[in-house]
């Protein structure tokens, strides 16, 4: 959409005369564009490498590996969208039309939901595998896992529909902005409260509960060798929270602004979320490029031995089910060794008793 078409467009009516937009602040848009550019050059090839490592180099795909694969697909898809937003922030004008406005923000929201739901599922699976290891085989079959993943993606597609409904290109003078219906307070409250509840509060409530139980059990049992893989998953969880928290804080400020009556407070809140939206949204994108970096540092001990397959070996080692198989094999081996030792001790006792009996019978013969 050009500046002249913005002036003539019927669908792009002015949101509120004289109101600022999210691209008006030069410092915020410049910082946001720099962050998104860096995120794209790090995150897009990084997530592609994770996908390639799992599909081409992993010998066997465990439940954890499948979850990380889907997480990389979601993150990589989000990274592929960043050039559009870089252009938007640099030009300070939405130039690719109303349809792309709806589609791009729908895909962004869908990938945000997908990432947090997959991380939540990863945490719940670790909880079941550590607290109730006998029941983990009931949920770890490939067919069940694939059905759960399909269900998650379908749910994500449905919960992201508000972005298609509430997003559109609007004009302020000759500037086109892809934004929500800010003159409709109920739309703002519904959209951002859904994101806050479904994309942050509920998932992180489940995640925090899961890891409190997991860490308690690790301290109480002999699972300490699994602490390395638990640290990797916990790092993914904490990273996602840190980078998305500012975005959800701005969402809450905007919801408060929508519910607040006109006055000085409403004006202040309006300035805060308008100035903070571009930067916090860009920071949220960092979470999608951070995971490959975490994988690299977690798996760097494999690099010399495995080469480009180091990440596949890392994911195979991080699988809780593979760890359980190894522990069962070790326990079985130890049982076999104990049986062998018992058999040897029994033979030694039998030999010793035979020697004792023969030694006691010799004096009798000499006496005869």
From TrEMBL:
Disordered: annotated segments: 324-368
Any one Pfam family match given in the protein's UniProt record, by short name: 7tm_1
Keyword annotations: Cell membrane, G-protein coupled receptor, Glycoprotein, Membrane, Phosphoprotein, Receptor, Transducer, Transmembrane, Transmembrane helix
Major localization class: membrane
InterPro entries from the UniProt entry: Formyl_rcpt-rel, GPCR_Rhodpsn, GPCR_Rhodpsn_7TM, Leukotriene_B4_rcpt
SUPFAM superfamilies named among the record's database cross-references: Family A G protein-coupled receptor-like (SSF81321)
Gene Ontology biological process terms from the UniProt entry: inflammatory response; phospholipase C-activating G protein-coupled receptor signaling pathway; positive regulation of cytosolic calcium ion concentration
Compartment(s) of residence: Cell membrane
GO cellular-component term (any): plasma membrane
Protein's membrane topology: Multi-pass membrane protein
GO MF annotation, one: leukotriene receptor activity
Bias-annotated ranges (Basic and acidic residues): 334-352
Transmembrane regions listed in the UniProt entry: 33-55, 67-91, 103-132, 144-165, 189-212, 232-259, 279-298
Chain ranges of the G-protein coupled receptors family 1 profile domain: 46-295
Keyword Repeat: no
Similarity annotation: Belongs to the chemokine-like receptor (CMKLR) family.
Stated name of the protein: Leukotriene B4 receptor 1-like
The species this protein was found in: Gouania willdenowi
